[in-house]
Amino acid sequence: MMKGKQERSTIEQPQILKLVENVEKVVVGKRREIELSLIAILSGGHVLLEDVPGVGKTMMVRAIARSLGADFKRIQFTPDLLPSDVTGVSVFNQKTMEFQFRPGPVMTNIVLADEINRTSPKTQAALLEALEEGSVTTDGETRELQQPFFVMATQNPIEYGGTYPLPEAQLDRFLFKFQIGYPTKSEELEVLNRVEKQHPIETLQSVMELETLLSMQEEVKKVYVQKNVKEYIISIVNATRHHHSVYLGASPRASIALMKAGQAFAYIQNRDYVIPDDIKYLAPFTLRHRIMLSSDAKLSDTTTERIVKDVIDQVRIPAGSEQAQ
């Protein structure tokens, strides 16, 4: 888990800061993780959380949904879950003598895909179109999803029994992958104090309308990315493909993801341009799940986090890219 650069993320955008502080009424000591989740939402991406049970994954996404006044659904992934249980199904109505579509839980604003690696690959794949295209296709008909649309998927660590590792195509659809981690002693004491009489999630109020969030998403797209910064992104991603410990490097989708995340990160800091430090900060969360290690690297206990750090250290930072030209 990347702990060393939490101070790098400083929110200057007033509405986003208010949103983060509202979520922090429920989630203690996890500002970086909240910020990363909001960066994903602003850039139209999705998040994969890999962590042990009970550290607050569900509570964080519920708090974000409440703070935005967004529709929220939870899908508990189990071995017997079917694709239609995710996307929806057409049911024959005997009164009208017609088939009627019953939307699945994925057709909402914010989805918690809980323990996604406990279901079969076929059901995991039911999310692919929703994650990438913002739509689902059932019975030959494509249906657009509500906007904004955000999926936060959780999974147990792969070494746990009864899990199905997500395939590369599925992992590549997630903008970020990170962990929440255990709280410190003081943070855990604060959690106990807050839930002693009533859980704060029960009284949490919305502080932003969905229309405002949609407007922000459009503003994020206008954040300027200089050519040198784009080349810096490409150099980092390309370096993962040629690293001696990597069997499969990051795809062009990773370059797009890193650029869009950089735009959202600059936006929450009230900048209308992306700088290389934005990319350096976000690269570990964007690339670590998009890299496949070679067999030798796995045997030597090399991690994807270490490879991304090596790549960032090796790639030269472009000169003259501190501001928009």
Structural descriptors:
single chain, 325 residues, alpha/beta, Rossmann fold, Helicase, Ruva Protein, domain 3, 2 domains, 5-stranded parallel beta sheet, globular, disordered N terminus
Description of the structure:
The chain is of the alpha/beta class. The chain has 2 domains: 11-208, Rossmann fold (3-Layer(aba) Sandwich), CATH 3.40.50; 222-318, Helicase, Ruva Protein, domain 3. Helix content is 42%, strand content 15%. Strand 3 (88-93) and strand 4 form a beta hairpin. Helix 9 (210-221) packs across helix 11 (252-268), helix 10 (227-241) runs parallel beside helix 12 and helix 12 (276-287) packs antiparallel against helix 14. The protein is globular. The protein starts with 13 loop residues before the first helix and ends in an 11-residue tail after the last helix. The model is unreliable at 1-6 (pLDDT under 50).
Order of helices and strands: HHEHEHEEEHHEEEHEHHHEHHEHH
Which secondary-structure class do the elements indicate? alpha/beta
Number of domains: 2
Strands in their spatial order, largest beta sheet = 2-5-8-1-9
Helix content range: 40-55%
What is the mean pLDDT? 89
CATH fold-level name of the largest domain: Rossmann fold
CATH class category of the largest domain: Alpha Beta
Number of strands: 11
In CATH, the architecture of the largest domain is 3-Layer(aba) Sandwich
Query: Radius of gyration, Cα only, in angstroms?
Result: 20 Å
Ends distance: 35 Å
- Outline type: globular
